[in-house]
Amino acid sequence: VEVRIVDDQGREALCTHPGEVWVRGAQVMAGYLNPSDDTTMPLPEGWLRTGDIGTLSPDGYLSILDRRSDLIVSGGENVYPAEVEAALCSHPDVSDAAVIGRPDPTWGHVVHAFIVPASARRPSTDELIAHCRIRLAGFKQPKAFHFVASLPRARSGKLLRGALR
């Protein structure tokens, strides 16, 4: 299998820079059966656009950062939900977390967090803000927090972000 990372302009991304993961090989599909308007364009030169955002290390290791459809663009900056969720889940009083982009007139979108407390002791918004401030760049920090008993997930465990929106 061949793997490459492609930036928003359709150029191969520099090493360690994030972009969409494209794959090509004998085991990759040849195309779409009965393509419709909803189906992506034909595979350019056999490359399948996965919809995943990732990076390639100098030694060729692939790291998947997130799904392209989950990417939050805030003030022109890319925010990968998985990074924000990992920072939130590193708080001792957070059992689970999910983030989505909430429309904002100034920034386009801002990060909105859904928090499942780890116990009866619910962390305060101020605690979470302080926790994120030392772990995330300013544009990645949640601007709002919503506390929930659980997050909507599919049977496979995959987070259902659409239900949160």
Concise summary:
The chain is mostly beta strands and 165 residues long. 13% of the residues lie in helices and 35% in strands. The chain has a 4-stranded antiparallel β-sheet. Strands 7-8-9 form a 3-stranded mixed β-sheet, covered by helices on one side. Strands 5-6 form a two-stranded antiparallel sheet.
List the helices and strands and how they pair.
Elements: E1 2-6, E2 19-24, E3 48-56, E4 62-67, E5 72-74, E6 77-79, H1 81-89, E7 94-104, E8 108-117, H2 125-133, E9 144-147, H3 161-164
Parallel strand pairs: 8-9
Antiparallel strand pairs: 1-2, 2-3, 3-4, 5-6, 7-8
Strand line-up of the largest beta sheet: 1-2-3-4
Instruction: State Rg.
Output: 18 Å
Which geometry do the CA atoms define? Answer: elongated
Number of helices in the DSSP assignment: 3
Q: What is the average per-residue confidence, as pLDDT, rounded to a whole number?
A: 91
**Helix and strand element order:** EEEEEEHEEHEH
Overall structural class, as computed from helix and strand content, comes to mainly beta
pLDDT under 50 segments (min length 5)? none
Beta percentage is 25-35%
> Based on DSSP secondary structure assignment, what is the total number of beta strands?
9
Distance between the first and last residues' Cα: 36 Å
